[in-house]
Design goal:
11% helix, 3 helices, two-stranded antiparallel ribbon, mainly beta, single chain, 16-stranded antiparallel beta barrel
Length: 365
């Protein structure tokens, strides 16, 4: 009887969700301002260090399960876009949400996006939005087809994927400049941590002089600790996307962060990282991408290790993409991480290297 009761509760929840998206689908068909979409990415990844619990190193949050077929990310999304009002609501599941939103309470772990916005000026592209958003930091996201490589870089996995708060956004009339400022709940937080009452802020400036060049500078300022041990964090993110030819492009990105060593101190710990990606598109079905990356967190502000001088590692990735049809993508990637110190775990020992082979199949609808 006990198991039957919980089975009935799960079935009721499933029926409610199915009914909700049936209604959404009907609304989508009737309202041209409303769109319904979804995404699903299944993957298999083999970590040659063979973690016994099937979890890759703790600083990896996307495609992070070893030697099993798993769902990295699946979401369903409803979007509203009119002249003066816009909004997004998406529910997700997968190993990405389990790993990256583990600190969020209850059903908030399954919120991919939930925001609403109002245009403030009739003749200017000035908007105010509030809710849960994709992060304004970095050029990689949880949505794999939007990224040039199958797996995320270390700088992406160790800076916010998402944020919550309120955002003021302005696009210039000529479409070349975007300016945004944010009041946030914290460093990758939907809910504040206990004992934290300090505000956090973000800024973003994007310049796109033409369809071949995009330059971005984003910042974060805030405290991610309880007020009693407040440590102010200052984070800078720079990147450029260059489409050198119709087939060949480059992305270069650099992160640099500072955090107080102790409350009220002017002494700072720092960390930094960078990535360089080259992509060649053979045709509308086949593409190759290669990435070099480096990350250094000597004072272990972000990544904790057992090494005396912290985390210092380089990474090399080679990625092959095949899109048999427009809304489906098959990917395979080889990746090697090499550290100056022995910081990777293999058979209860620490080693200097870790290597992975990852494949994925994703569909969009």
């Amino acid at each position: 009887m006990f198991n039957d009761y919980f089975l009935l509760k799960r079935m009721k929840k499933l029926l409610i969700v199915m009914s909700l998206f049936t209604i959404i689908g009907k609304v989508s068909a009737q309202d041209k301002n409303f769109q319904f979409s979804g995404f699903l990415e299944v993957y298999y990844s083999y970590d040659f260090n063979k973690p016994a619990d099937h979890n890759k190193e703790g600083f990896i949050y996307s495609h992070n399960r070893h030697n099993e077929l798993n769902l990295n990310l699946g979401f369903v999304k409803g979007s509203l876009a009119s002249d003066r009002v816009r909004g997004n609501f998406a529910l997700m599941t997968g190993s990405y949400s389990n790993a990256n939103l583990s600190g969020e309470p209850g059903v908030l772990k399954n919120i991919y996006e939930a925001n609403a916005g109002v245009k403030l000026a009739a003749k200017k592209n000035l908007w105010i939005d509030a809710g849960i958003f994709a992060s304004h930091l970095g050029f990689e996201s949880a949505h794999s087809p939007s990224c040039w490589n199958l797996t995320r870089s270390i700088i992406a996995d160790n800076s916010p994927y998402y944020e919550s708060g309120i955002k003021l956004n302005y696009d210039s009339d000529n479409g070349k400049w975007t300016f945004a400022s944010m009041y946030l709940n914290g460093w990758q937080r939907i809910t504040r941590i206990d004992g934290n009452s300090t505000p956090a802020f973000g800024t973003q400036v994007t310049y796109k002089p033409n369809n071949k060049v995009l330059l971005n500078y984003s910042t974060f300022i805030g405290n991610d600790k309880p007020d009693s041990v407040r440590l102010m964090r200052y984070f800078n993110n720079f990147y450029g996307i260059l489409q050198l030819t119709s087939k060949f492009g480059l992305i270069a990105g650099v992160d640099y962060g500072l955090e107080q060593k102790t409350k009220g101190s002017s002494d700072m710990n720092n960390w930094f990282g960078g990535a360089l990606i080259a992509k060649y598109v053979f045709n509308d079905k086949v593409a190759l991408a290669a990435r070099y990356e480096y990350y250094q967190d000597e004072n272990e502000v972000i990544i904790t290790t057992e090494a005396p001088d912290g985390f210092k590692a380089s990474g090399y990735s080679l990625n092959f993409d095949y899109a048999p049809i427009k809304n489906a993508l098959f990917r395979i990637e080889g990746k090697l991480l090499n550290s100056k110190n022995a910081v990777f775990t293999k058979e209860n020992s620490l080693v200097n290297n870790d290597a992975f082979i990852t494949t994925s199949l994703s569909i969009s609808f």
